[in-house]
Design a protein that fits this description.
The structure is a single chain. This protein is an all-alpha fold. About 90% of the residues lie in helices and about 0% in strands.
């Protein structure tokens, strides 16, 4: 019994971390396709295409600055979100934060895709990227091996199938 008490805080922390990691992975997978499609559509616009071509050919440290710009631009919006929450406007603050996070992630992902070759020529960035990617892949593999993850994925697939069938029956095709 005593041994179980000592492991209890670690198990709670590990369980909470696992739940947060699973939510993060789920949201990343769910939102990623929509963000990529939206950014690809935006990337087809003539002015944006021209700008993306310039970004893709930046030298390494200029690419690093371009990579950091979306995060820097969104800091005031995130601070606004926390200010709203502190002033008693929790829902509005949460909405501002979530929108800033989604928009920032979309732009960051697009700029990273454009600047990745240049960024990986920076030694410390390449080492950090390799270490982070390895850690993330291990975390994803662990979370995706959990029975709860597999059950949730099966439930989501079933719900999507049911929704598609309902839409087809109501609206055709």
């Amino acid at each position: 019994m005593k041994g179980n008490r000592r492991n209890f805080p670690g198990a709670v922390v590990r369980g909470a971390f696992t739940v947060l990691a699973a939510l993060w992975i789920f949201l990343e997978e769910w939102v990623w396709d929509a963000m990529q499609a939206c950014m690809a559509w935006i990337g087809k616009l003539p002015g944006v295409r021209w700008c993306e071509a310039r970004i893709a050919h930046l030298p390494p440290y200029a690419a690093l600055v371009a990579f950091l710009i979306p995060g820097a631009i969104l800091v005031p919006f995130k601070l606004l979100a926390f200010w709203l929450i502190a002033r008693g406007h929790g829902l509005l603050g949460l909405e501002v934060f979530v929108i800033a996070k989604i928009v920032g992630t979309a732009f960051l992902a697009r700029i990273f895709a454009l600047t990745k070759p240049a960024l990986l020529r920076i030694g410390w960035f390449a080492r950090f990227h390799a270490a982070f990617t390895a850690w993330r892949d291990r975390l994803y593999a662990y979370v995706k091996s959990l029975p709860a993850w597999r059950a949730a994925k099966a439930w989501i697939a079933e719900a999507r199938g049911t929704l598609r069938a309902w839409v087809r029956s109501r609206f055709g095709n």
